[in-house]
Amino acid sequence: MKLAEKLKARTLRVKGHSIGEIATKLSVSKSSVSNWVADIELSSAQIKQLKTNSHSAVAVENRRRSRLKNENARREQIIEKAKSEVNKPTAQELFFLGVALYWGEGTKKKRGVVEFTNSDPKVVEVMMRFFRDVCSVPEKKFRGHVYIHEHLSIEKAEQYWSRVARIPRRQFYKTSIQHNRTRLKKDTLTKGTFAISICDTELKLRILGWIEGVYQTTTVQSCE
Questions:
Q1: Could you read off the pLDDT of 158-172 as tens digits, one per residue?
Q2: Nearest alpha-carbon partner for 176 in 153, 149, 196
Q3: Alpha-carbon distance 207 to 23, whole Å?
Q4: 201, 55, 10: which is closest to 114 by C-alpha?
Q5: Staple partner for 197: which of 127, 143, 156, 160, CB 3.0–4.6 Å?
Q6: CA dist 193 to 51, 98, 110, 180, 204, Å?
Q7: Torsion sign over Cα 72, 74, 75, 81
Q8: CA separation for the pair 74, 90 (Å, rounded)
């Protein structure tokens, strides 16, 4: 038993502090405090004050923060557990991941051009891994293209995406400026959007073929 904490808890309880307040002050559980002070009877005035405090704006805000903290902690636990369930992708898994991402976000209609555009740096990193490791694209064939709003820094955006994609800025196309239609628009994309371009007709056709192959092999076929 934590004798020192118990004595402090009893002293605070006699002064009219709530179980929650004592637990917070001493960094112990509410159940421990409840056991330690179970025999202490509060005066009617102390009980009335505790009821008043429990409905105060400060108390309500503290409870809100406590709930939020607990919710965030639970979210982090779920996320961390899920992360631990993922192993390093095999070559085949990286192939399917890259094909699926291109299927959803890649350009299909430009003849002879493989182009993938996204604003999420993690997605861009994964696609660069796909292009390098699965497609064996030579480094000199990569081209980068930044799309950014006119009031944001082109220099910072180009430096940022060059680091993310590991494509030298000398292999970037001229950055495209997007003009804001409203001053109230939030700057949710401070580094703009990035496009990976590869001029390679054969690779484009292969990727389109892979997409069709993935579709055909994963679609449930009707019974004949």
A1: 999 999 999 999 999
A2: 149
A3: 60
A4: 201
A5: 143
A6: 54, 19, 19, 15, 22
A7: positive
A8: 31
Give the domain ranges of the chain: 3-84, 91-218
Measure the CA–CA gap between 135 and 207, rounded to whole angstroms. 9
Q: Residue 25 has which token pair?
A: 């002050």
CA angle 195, 200, 203 (to 5 degrees): 95
Residue 113 has pLDDT above 90, yes or no: yes
Cβ-contact 196, 124 below 8 angstroms: yes
pLDDT in tens, 189-214: 889 999 999 999 999 999 999 999 99
Asked if residue 23 lies in contact with residue 35, where contact means CB atoms within 8 angstroms, the answer is no
In angstroms and rounded to an integer, the radius of gyration of the C-alpha atoms of the chain is 30
Angle, CA of 56, 60 and 66, to the nearest 5°:
145
